């Protein structure tokens, strides 16, 4: 039997996801931390890394470094 998700269910799931994201933002802010994510393909190979601006600053990158890195990311996509 195929399960279909109706629009209301998707809205509820999206709202829950947004609440979780807001909670994580608050935790990172309280800790003075920065967010980052990594994406992997099915074989476990890392395919993409995303660092927030706060995380980049924690690592010592400055605005000029940040802008050049963003341009490099855009060229890679």
Description:
The protein is an alpha+beta fold and 77 residues long. The protein has 2 domains: 1-33, no CATH class; 34-77, no CATH class. It is 58% helix and 14% strand. It has 3 helices and 2 strands, in the order H-E-E-H-H. It has a two-stranded antiparallel sheet. The mean pLDDT is 83.
Features:
77 residues; alpha+beta; 2 domains; two-stranded antiparallel ribbon; 3 helices; 14% strand
Q: How are the elements arranged and paired?
A:
Layout: H1 7-31, E1 36-40, E2 46-51, H2 53-58, H3 63-76
Antiparallel strand pairs: 1-2
Please provide a brief summary of the model.
The chain is α+β, with helices and mostly antiparallel strands and 77 residues long. It has helices at residues 7-31, 53-58, 63-76, and strands at residues 36-40, 46-51.
Which spans of ≥5 residues are poorly predicted at pLDDT below 50? none
Assembly classification = single chain
Distance between the termini: 38 Å
Which geometry do the CA atoms define? extended
Number of helices: 3
Main-sheet strand order equals: 1-2
Strand content: 5-15%
Largest sheet: 2 strands, antiparallel
Estimate nothing, just give the exact number of structural domains: 2
Q: Tally the beta strands.
A: 2
User: What string gives the helices and strands in order?
Assistant: HEEHH
Write down the Rg: 17 Å
Helix content: 55-70%
Mean pLDDT: 83
Structural class: alpha+beta
């Amino acid at each position: 039997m195929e399960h279909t998700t109706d629009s209301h269910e998707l809205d509820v799931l999206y709202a829950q996801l947004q609440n979780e994201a807001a909670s994580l933002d608050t935790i990172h802010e309280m800790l003075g931390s920065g967010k980052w994510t990594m994406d992997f393909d099915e074989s476990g190979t890392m395919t993409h890394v995303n660092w927030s601006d706060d995380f980049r600053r924690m690592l010592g990158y400055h605005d000029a470094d940040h802008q050049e890195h963003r341009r490099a990311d855009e060229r890679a996509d």
